[in-house]
Design goal:
The chain is an alpha+beta fold and 231 residues long. The protein folds into two domains: 76 residues, Glutaredoxin (3-Layer(aba) Sandwich); 126 residues, Up-down Bundle (Glutathione S-transferase Yfyf (Class Pi), Chain A, domain 2). The protein is built from nine helices and four strands, in the order βαβαββααααααα. It has a four-stranded mixed β-sheet with strand order 2-1-3-4, with helices on one face. Helix 1 packs parallel to helix 3, helix 4 runs parallel beside helix 6 and helix 7 crosses helix 9. It starts with 5 loop residues before the first strand and ends in a 5-residue tail after the last helix.
């Protein structure tokens, strides 16, 4: 399939955009990547996602698909005969993966954001404790889902790996900027080793942002939020 048939509207710091790009890489789908200006949304983005007006957007044969996890499922189904399956084939395993993916987005990501935007030491400490508690729960989920294999999805990266793994760049930045260890060899040994494997995978390493570059972006973002120019 020609690149022109598949496009991704995104921005390099976005963990959600990374989900779409990893899924496409796993499926060996060539695509045209269109970097959005974070300060000014393109006409194509507004036309393609008029409801939320957010990235990522996958455009396949001129038809837009929005929301990162929906895009991952779409890619897995649209190119079912290409590359390994991303979504678990077993109904129960699929339900469990979707449950934890929702948990990551609804609980862990807000806690991660709160560490960087917390007002005062106590607020940051509370957010860190909340995140670590969530990671311990996810450690248990990893043990059960992986069944002794390298990834949540088993022998290869699957749906839950993508859902959680896309945040690892921001986890590293948060650790660096706040001098805290979130993925710990003692408390979360499975996740600690999993994170190394995930970031080194061929489908991930080219789209995972460098920690220092992401940290610089985070500083700029913090200044914009403080000035009221970014919500």
């Amino acid at each position: 399939m020609a690149k022109s048939d598949v496009k991704v509207l995104g921005a390099w710091p976005s963990p959600f955009v990374m989900r779409a790009r990893i899924a496409l890489k796993i499926k060996s789908v060539e695509y045209e990547y269109l970097e959005e200006n974070l300060g000014s949304k393109s006409e194509l983005l507004l036309k393609s996602n008029p409801v939320h007006k957010k990235i990522p957007v996958l455009i396949h044969n001129d038809k837009p698909v929005c929301e990162s996890l929906i895009i991952v499922e779409y890619v897995d189904e649209a190119w079912s005969s290409s590359g390994p399956s991303i979504i678990p084939s077993d109904p129960y395993d699929r339900a469990v993966a979707r449950f934890w993916a929702a948990y990551v987005d609804e609980k862990l990501f807000p806690a991660l954001k709160s560490i960087g935007s917390g007002d005062g030491a106590e607020a940051k400490k509370a957010a860190i404790e909340q995140l670590i508690e969530g990671l311990v729960l996810l450690e248990d989920a990893f043990v059960k889902c992986s069944k002794g294999k390298p990834f949540f999805g088993g022998s290869q990266i699957g749906f839950l790996d993508i859902a959680f793994g896309c945040y690892l760049g921001w986890v590293r930045v948060t650790e660096k900027m706040n001098e805290v260890k979130l993925l710990d060899e003692v408390k979360t040994p499975g996740l600690f080793k999993w994170a190394e494997r995930f970031c080194a995978d061929a489908a991930v390493k080219d789209v995972m942002p460098e920690t220092d570059k992401l940290a610089e972006f985070a500083k700029v973002l913090a200044k914009l939020r403080a000035s009221g120019k970014w919500n």
